[in-house]
TrEMBL record, chain A:
UniProt-listed NCBIfam families: PRK09970.1, XdhA_XDHase
Gene3D superfamilies documented for this protein: Aldehyde oxidase/xanthine dehydrogenase, a/b hammerhead, Aldehyde oxidase/xanthine dehydrogenase, molybdopterin binding domain
GO molecular function list: iron ion binding; xanthine dehydrogenase activity
Keyword annotations from UniProtKB, A to Z: Molybdenum, Oxidoreductase
Any single Gene Ontology cellular-component annotation: xanthine dehydrogenase complex
InterPro entries cross-referenced by the UniProt entry: Ald_Oxase/Xan_DH_a/b (IPR000674), Ald_Oxase/Xan_DH_a/b_sf (IPR036856), Ald_Oxase/xanthine_DH-like (IPR016208), AldOxase/xan_DH_MoCoBD1 (IPR008274), AldOxase/xan_DH_MoCoBD2 (IPR046867), AldOxase/xan_DH_Mopterin-bd_sf (IPR037165), XdhA_XDHase (IPR050028)
Residues annotated as domain Aldehyde oxidase/xanthine dehydrogenase a/b hammerhead: 17-133
Keyword presence, RNA-binding: no
Name used for this protein in its record: Xanthine dehydrogenase, molybdenum binding subunit apoprotein
Presence of the UniProt keyword Nucleus in the record: no
TrEMBL record, chain B:
Cofactors required: [3Fe-4S] cluster; [2Fe-2S] cluster
Annotated Pfam families: Fer2_2, Fer2_3
Stated family: Belongs to the succinate dehydrogenase/fumarate reductase iron-sulfur protein family.
Stored InterPro entries: 2Fe-2S-bd, 2Fe-2S-bd_dom_sf, 2Fe-2S_ferredoxin-like_sf, 2Fe-2S_ferredoxin-type, 2Fe2S_fd_BS, Beta-grasp_dom_sf, Diverse_Oxidoreductases, Succ_DH/fum_Rdtase_N
Source taxon at top rank: Bacteria
Molecular functions per Gene Ontology: 2 iron, 2 sulfur cluster binding; electron transfer activity; metal ion binding; oxidoreductase activity
Stored PANTHER family: OXIDOREDUCTASE WITH IRON-SULFUR SUBUNIT (PTHR44379)
Protein name (database record): Carbon-monoxide dehydrogenase small subunit
Keywords, ordered alphabetically: 2Fe-2S, Iron, Iron-sulfur, Metal-binding, Oxidoreductase
Domain 2Fe-2S ferredoxin-type: 3-80
Amino acid sequence: MAVGKSVNRVDAMAKVTGRAKYTEDFYHPDMLVAKYFRSSIAHGRVTAINTKKAENLDGVHAVFTYKDVPENKFPTAGHPLALTEDHKDAADRLLLTRDVRFMGDEIAIVVAQNELVANEALKLIEVSYDEYQPLILPEDILEENARQIHEGSSNIVGEHTYTFGNDVDQAFEKADHVVEGSFRTAMVQHCHIENHISHAYMDDLDKIVIVSSTQIPHIARRIVGEVLNIPLSRIRVIKPFVGGGFGNKQDVILEPMVAFLTLKLNGRAVQINLSREECIIGTRTRHPFYIDVKTGVMNDGTIVARHMDAISITGAYASHGHSVAAAGGSKQSSLYPRAATSFHARTLYANTPVAGAMRAYGSPQIIYALECATEDAARKIGMDSVEFRLKNVARQGDINLLSGKEILSCGLADCLIKGRDFIGWGEKKKEYEKFKTGPVRKGLGLACLSYASGTYPVCVEIAGARIALNQDGTVHVMVGATEIGQGSDTVVAQMVAQTLSFPYENVLVVQAQDTDVTPFDTGAYASRQAYVVSNAVFRAATDLREKILDHAAVMTDIDVAGLDIVDGNIVDTRKSAQVMDMKTLAIDSFYHKERGCQLTAEASFKATTNAPVFGCTFVDITVNIPLCKIKINRMISVHDSGVIINPVQSGGQIHGGAFMGIGAALSEELLIDPKTGYIYNNNLLDYKFPTFTDVPPIHHDFVETFEPTSAYGNKALGEPPVISPPPAIRNAVLDATGLCINSLPLSPHTLFTAFKDHGLIDEKGGDNV
Amino acid sequence: MKMPVTLNINNTTWNLDIDANATLLEVLRNNVLNQQSVHRSCEEGECGACTVLMDGKPVNSCLVMAASAQGSTIITSEGLMRGDELHPLMKAFVDELGLQCGFCTPGMVMSAYALINQWEDEELSDMDIRKAIEGNLCRCTGYVNIVNSIRRAKQAKDAGNWW
């Protein structure tokens, strides 16, 4: 049984030895490098550009500007093609732009023999601008006479409203209490360790080959074709090992440009390898949100009504745009399905770095506000925070009123109980009663989460798998599901091993993606892969298993009903005896002159279900008032992600997500000058994501349910762990200090302001407590 | 401007003609030495993805001018292998699933190797591990399984399984 075992990753050896090839490791002897010339202002229009000096520099092969690129605007979001207008992404981007919309916008590009020359050439480009006032804050962006960042947009990318359940206004009227709060989340960045990198070349007169660190090879191929107006079959995208993505590579960022450049340069290989600084400001970020929440609650602890109003800032270009607010907002109906709920959200352009997909896609913002508001409501009626959640959260059999689907598996209540017991909720609450005054205070907090296992019914959910029996009795598996570090190749191998009854070691997953070869799948996002691919893998593996047994029956003259595969060998079940090993069968299938054939199976599958997942985080903290510092003493995240295919690897996903959540809660924030749009901390020294010593040992646990719509009972896990830590920490700060600090991150800067405003420390930072 | 430099890399001595302004990272990654385990990321000493051992000490190879490494001994994670055999430290990372995307892994391995090599006490606490290699950033793992890997590697060394 391979499913449920903590087998080693299929790619562990390659990665630990350094032999795994990432995009930069593909060497072309004559490869040129390209570097963007980026704007030094946040908002304006280029009035003149002179590239002559740069072009004349020794070693420069070409300089292209906004004058040289195709005029058709394109969307960059890594979504499957939408066949209906309502789900199409905003097409608002050109390969290079004359209109500058954020500091770092791409105006021109230099192609040179190496990076040194390219950087020198950038200094020789002369540009002048008409400068406009940067629009950074919502009130300025929405001001009546504000300049339109994209003509005709009114600076709004999208807007929508939904309601579910009983009449929301009536429910608020009936509520014993109405609790209100306003919340703000910060612009944070993915900071995958491998920056964005792509190169392209033409392998003959026709075909453009793009090697790229991407989460979405098949989508990248389609969008490159659209941008350059060339048939999709002329474009081949290869995805080698990827050094992390977290959503930032669910966007076509470099692929259209490298394809454009190689076309312009007679097929010569051209690479763009962004620097860390470019990666932070010039790729994608997480949308900052401004959220107002109103909660109607009864004295018995029932949440009866909820209203949420959200503003999401997408920055200079739409990228994933309003989809992020829409997706985040929709999770309310699976977390608190019984409260009458209304939701309104708008997504705005701004002269800031572009926001796109980032781990959990809007849910960290929405659920942060939701879970802070839920805590405030519990306190309003004086009910224990855990009991309050247990009374209100989703349970198996509830109907998700937005999707109209029954929640078929839900272990959230058990997650809450496990988390409560681990953290020692009752005893600690008592112990910490004496730490509510003075300079050192202690508190407990929790927050719940819900997420989905894909994008259906908003987008198509399609996955493919192909399995072939090798002559040595092993199998090779090809999937379109895209390994980016999360471990999807490993769980695919486990699923195949499970269904074929093969030893895990005998299942070999083809690691690189190649759109000319690998089955179609839309890629790594929405925590969809293990869930959606499960049914494709199961179908292909079941088919191959039948073919293997049929061939065994032909070879042995034993009735197929009496044959089985056990640990990779053919067994006569009636005699409980091994008949032959898999290699013997495979050799016969390949080389016997009259019978057999190469045994392969393939399946492509569309999921029309979308299983909700659940979880919670409990945290125990100390707040040092004079130092304005939060120390996490203990933390646990407990998840219901259905059947856990690989417990240790899944634990790693929780640790990584929770760690990213801690960063967002305590220190991570891109700082933008509200007057100029200048980004102060575009590097890993000043952008503080946690180091080894900044985070505590993160604990995790599972409540395993069986999700019947997945072939192996599994549900999403990749993104959800990032969601619940920030509200849990905010709620613990409230428990410790009595203060609702509703803005992320809870950095010393934020805490200082809050403590000063509430008189806990004076102007000079001296404590009054 | 080119200049000659002699480096011993993973027990092979190289006489190289390098660009005077090249970093050790660039020279190690170039098409002569081809040390692809040395990963380029921030290129300013913040992330540790390009960590190698220089005369036994872990350095960010992006911050070392190759010219200044003249005469030194460099070990990259390629150099920890014994033929096809994984170094016990690497095996610990495999067994504890101490990696996800793998991009920080070779640098992490080199910092951990330096730590365990020079650690003389019997006791190596988790906090000792965290402090010693906090210069290496990882965005995938939350560090938990990496600490587990290094703890296991220390046990391997204590059991005499080390080189």
